[in-house]
Design goal:
The protein is mainly α and 231 residues long. It has a single domain, classed as Methane Monooxygenase Hydroxylase, Chain G, domain 1. The chain contains 6 helices and no strands.
């Protein structure tokens, strides 16, 4: 594949779209940082405030997504890349949505009052620290992947782009390993765990995994745009 100096091939509309998608990636990274805090500060009042912050970021992401789609469909864009650019916007926006959905799940769980008679061995708490640690590890990996994704969107050299794409793939695989180990532990605890706790952790593990998968999908779409323009 040869698309050296490919950014020089982008027309004004396409360059603008990439800059705006970077802004959405930065919003997703801010959302990720808030979620890390939420995982460590699980008091109801704090959760509500952080959830409101994520809702505001979700709204901002929706507004940017709507604006970019208008630029893509009405602006000076190479017709061969319109679909992939639109998909880039959809994927980036869905990343921010995932954080707000996860925040709602944390808030709901924090409101549950368990009956001690339903619990065996586990303390009267809605949290399982070792699973929370795994979730935070996945979020920390997502933060590094977002940084790489931003660099990918800014890159103009083919070798650099493909290296960054590979780095994102490695980050997703490392997060997968954390997720798989966490699920192994979750299932080992299942006989002593209330079904709501099991469902809660299963939901968050899948949700955070979706975020890393989304980053990889976005990277693939960006590479596809670059290839289409250079061919």
């Amino acid at each position: 594949m040869n698309f050296n100096r490919l950014k020089g091939l982008l027309v004004i509309g396409e360059r603008k779209s990439f800059r705006e998608i970077i802004e959405m990636v930065e919003i997703a990274r801010k959302s990720n940082a808030i979620m890390i805090v939420m995982m460590s500060e699980l008091k109801l009042g704090d959760l509500v405030l952080k959830m409101q912050d994520l809702k505001a970021l979700e709204k901002k992401s929706d507004e940017i997504a709507f604006m970019i789609k208008g630029h893509i469909t009405k602006g000076a864009i190479n017709p061969t890349v319109i679909d992939n650019l639109l998909n880039c916007v959809e994927v980036a926006d869905s990343l921010v949505d995932d954080y707000y959905i996860a925040s709602r799940e944390l808030w709901r769980m924090a409101n549950v009052e368990f009956d001690n008679n339903l619990l065996v061995r586990l303390p009267n708490s809605n949290r399982v620290p070792e699973l929370d640690t795994a979730l935070v590890k996945m979020l920390e990996k997502a933060d590094s992947v977002f940084a790489i994704l931003k660099r990918l969107l800014e890159a103009a050299d083919s070798k650099e782009i493909m290296k960054l794409r590979h780095d994102i793939e490695l980050g997703e695989e490392e997060s997968d390993n954390v997720k798989d180990n966490a699920f192994d532990r979750l299932y080992s605890l299942a006989p002593t765990m209330h079904y709501l706790r099991f469902s809660h952790y299963s939901e968050l593990l899948h949700r955070f995994d979706d975020i890393l998968d989304g980053c990889e999908d976005l990277a693939d779409l960006v590479v596809s745009v670059m290839v289409s323009i250079s061919s």
